[in-house]
Amino acid sequence: MNRLLAALLFALSYGVALPAHAEWVALVMPHYGVELIDTTDPAKWIKTTPDEIFTAHGITFNLDFEDPDGFGFNDTLLGEARRERLKDVLEYVAETLNMSGELDMKVNVSETNPGGPLAFAGSVYPLLAGFHDASSFIRLNTGAKPYAGFPEIELTVNFYYNWHLGTDNPPSNKVDFFSVMLHEMTHGLGFTTLSTNTGASMTVPGAYTRFDQFMVRRSEARYLFEDAPPAFAGTPNDLISGDLGFNGDTAFTNYGQGIVPPLYAPNPFLVGSSLQHWDTGHIVGGAVMEHQFAPGQSKRSYSPLDVGALVDLGYANASVIDLPWCGLQSFAITQPTGNFTVSPGQQATIALRASVTFDHNVDCRESDVLVTYYINTQKVGESPDRTGGFPVSIQRGAGTYNLLAEAKVMQTGETMTASKSFSVTEAPALAVTPSASTGLIFPDVVVGGAADRNVTVQNTGGTAVSGTATVGAGPFAFSDGTKVKDFLLNPGASASFAVRFSPTRKALENSTLTITSDPSGAITLALKGNGIQTGAFSCGASDASPGAADGFVVALMFIALLVTSRRRAIRCNW
Prior knowledge:
By secondary structure, the protein is of the alpha+beta class. Helix content is 15%, strand content 34%.
């Protein structure tokens, strides 16, 4: 507990007189606590001349920034952006309240506390029994300054955290500055309690806020703070029941659910959060004054429930001022990124994707967008899934296609289109006869002779294909004696090539025929042939003449026959 507050409560409890000149008030700031202020202290809280005077929608804000040069709101790089974003919040608040007046606002020295709250703000309340309005409300409604020399609202921001200062949606690792400042400013307008976890006042007996006057046990329709002066009419268990609500007429009506809107009342009691926030996750449609706020989240406009509570607190002219719907700044097709190739007779699976960028020159609400895709003017699908890139998947065979995508803002009807063309082509395909697994097998050929075998290449694809047929090393070539032939085949066309085996020796010969084309690649056929020879005792027909070696063998055999004087049949062994 704040030491000044502890001293005051001790004095009140034991009858110790406070200094006669002192006029004590309490600065109540949810997420921080209560600080006692002696309004007669000559050390004034605001400067004689404000650092900045800002007027918006009838309300003048006299702003004092307490940060030293180079730090916080006076940071060399980010100070100006932080101040401007805070003024955006004040402008929105002023437009919502729809009243004229003046407020002094002190922005305390900023914190860089890794364990502290994001920010905290509040207003000043008297140390008297009763339901009391915030001094900010009194100043705006009466025009009179409740405590001379002291601000009506104080704000402290913790710049340890990674803040998002832009008007676009915050990324998942940043906290939205506008949203948090709007939340804290609303506490400064009186959306706060003075109840402790026992129901007793944080300051003096019977001293509560106007907000406390509307607190009820929902299931029993029972008010917790009643009578004059007010007293706690419940039990401590009521305050941790999860069954509390704010029973203001306008809040009830604006909520529109036929039930009292729920307040945050967890077990255990959480000082700074319990009782003075809507119950996050149980508010239909969400609200600025819910008790939790996560990085990447944006709540930049009051819900009807938030505004209803402000009206019940006395801001009679407050009205729902929705931020405008964001317009589209750009729209683009992100897929397909190129053309497609498929096998003959097949279809390509094509992912259609798109992206939108909203115009965030001013604060606005990002709207719902529906993207519809058309192929050659025919609708092929639609998607509202912005996170997924508005995905649609289609299948198409060979052809050229014109893609048109239309993005439509559902809340305003604004549209934007993008287009591109793409094609699906069948990959050139070659059918080779005989197949690569069979290859070309030549018959036995007498050395010096030749034999031909045909190879047929057919284009079975949907586009023309060019290629090259190449015969490898060895006694193989095309019938015209060349080793290489180029070809160009239209769809369905074929070409035949005669491959010749011309052995120059008695031997088994091997080589290859390689047919290459783009993009089919290479097809290789094995070439096999057997070169043979003939002589005087040849058992096979041949146009070749016996050589010297053959004659020598015949002579030896003839001599052997004479020696043995026995005729033997000669077997062919070649």
